[in-house]
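Hey, I was hoping to borrow your eyes for a little while. There's a protein on my desk that I can't quite get my head around. The fold is given in discrete form, as structure tokens running alongside the sequence. I'd be grateful if you could look everything over and explain what you see. Here's the protein in full, and shout if anything looks odd to you:
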Amino acid sequence: MSETLPRPATGASGPPRANTVVAVLAFAGIVVSLMQTLVIPLIPRLPSLLDASASDTTWAITATLLAAAVATPVIGRLGDMYGKRRMLLISLALLVTGSVVGALSDTLTPMVVGRTLQGLAAGVIPLGISIMRDELPAERLGAATALMSASLGVGGALGLPAAALLAERADWHMLFWTAAGFGVLATALVARLVPESAVRSGGRFDVAGAAGLSIALVCLLLAISKGAAWGWTSGLTLGLFLVSALTLALWGRWELRSARPLVDLRTTARRQVLLTNLASAVFGFAMFAMSLLMPQVIQLPKATGYGLGETMLTVGLVMAPSGLVMMAMAPLSARISKNQGPKVTLMIGALVVASGYGLNIALMSAIWHLVLVSCVIGAGIGLAYGAMPALVMAAVPVSETAAANSLNTLMRSIGTSISSAVAGVVLAEMTITLGSTTLPAQSGFRVVMAVGAGAALLAFVLASFLPRQRPAAPAAAANSPATHGAAHTG
């Protein structure tokens, strides 16, 4: 049984206070999403910078992915139980600590530790959306959650050119010191301006459920992210997939029998929640293909006939406008959801992303082509990401908001991980030889673009089976403490 604490005084109530809370939470989300692209400009230099092999330095990225996967559902559940703002502050403190550790690193081990701590902050965005559900008036909730959800892509897109510029013009440790500074600022703003949520579920934390899900996720994502290097049919890769599957089966049985499960599988199995999470995973796959392809096309030598021969800084500048477009789409996403329902918004977003990849198949020979494509895909992502939390929150009890949003975020992350693996396999198989160097072929890029378009269309199909909702129902239902999770169907 959930408990509702006395609502804290919020000072000057109304739009000014709501605007402040939204701005602070969105800023915190952007800061956390910056961690996705923080080390990308350093990847070619990491072996020499950390005195390690190229294969070992990939752990600087893999560790963040694994930590985020483990932390997201756990932090979400703890937020529902013990206070969302409290867990938000703990997450930001982990980000700051990880950034400082990274800034002080000159070898691989402390760098991996720092990146792991940064990954543990991944729950900030679902926690922020959940705080908005509890604190904002219904008429503000749609646009606010759309902006918060889009911050996952905004920070990555805007952070890439900044990280590339810092990496080129300053000592690489400045990347981590800058991240720590932003983290400290976000922590201070949250502590000062964001109230603690009045809604808590209470109860005892499901330690066994958290351990089981963590083991299953780590094995799954480790196999996906390292499968190409280890061999997809190697004993280690297949063993990890097997352990993941068996652990998930046992975990599911435990969660169904637990009085206070980490993830309420009965709620998760509701048609609206299940289909939204499946669509999110597929959409995460479609979204990430752009982030994988464009940097390579832009940086490949002009001698290939399709590479543009530009620098990482140019990559960042090409992709940065997509982040601004995502942010601009947040209010439009909320308006469509209010008038037509978030199901329609998600379907439109999927079609826009698919059309962006279709354009990319034909237009990839000039910088402006890629800027146009990234903006179109960014618009679709902004629309869809704004609809996902509205769909989830309209179908779950208010006491499970953070856990449900965290699971939805996790599903997107799993989709992006699978996207990376699939793109890697395609580009490794379809190659050309330039001198003594083997490079991905243009046909390989086009195949991955077609797969990305197909994934977006599959997300459209999944979304079409969502229950039809009356306009404005998600926002109203999401903001009502009396909500028991029933979606309005027609």
Notes: Confidence is low (pLDDT under 50) at residues 1-13, 472-490.
